Amino acid sequence: MEIDLQLANEKRVILGRDFLTWLWFKSEQQNGMFKSRSGEDFSLYLEQKVVVEGGEGESLEKAVCTGMMSELREAKLGLRTGKKVAQAKIRLEQDANEWIMQVDASDFIFSGLKTPKVDTKVEEGDDPDSILLEKMFLVEKALGFLDDIYTGFVDLRLSIHWQGEVESFKKWLYRDED
Fold it and tell me: pTM value?
């Protein structure tokens, strides 16, 4: 039974890396524009920090690219050598709202989630739980956007259109090569 759990974990890691790698490609291809399943427009960008990895065990290679206005050239070079995105800093935007989080492909853990600012002033007669409820709403909104994108990715990954997506990805990957 332990072998099956190990195999399931390895498949999850592979799918997670494929998703974050595809997400970077898709966000650049679509200028960050996405649509939720309910029809809401929002933007998503990978920025400031991307970790790419390739190999395993002692031959594991990792490249960490950071910077405020980084174009992430080294990370993209890593993709060209067969690495995949293992971690990424993601910025979501909708109207005047902005969410920032770090996503780890191996276990889909979201860390450092920063939501839009919530007004903490409570007027007389206001529900004292309103601040917490607003914060929870904003967390759910961000995770819902990512869930919608992931669902679309899995649907595409399992469809006959995946090979065409891979070809588009390759064109994007080598587009800026000198």
Answer: 0.86
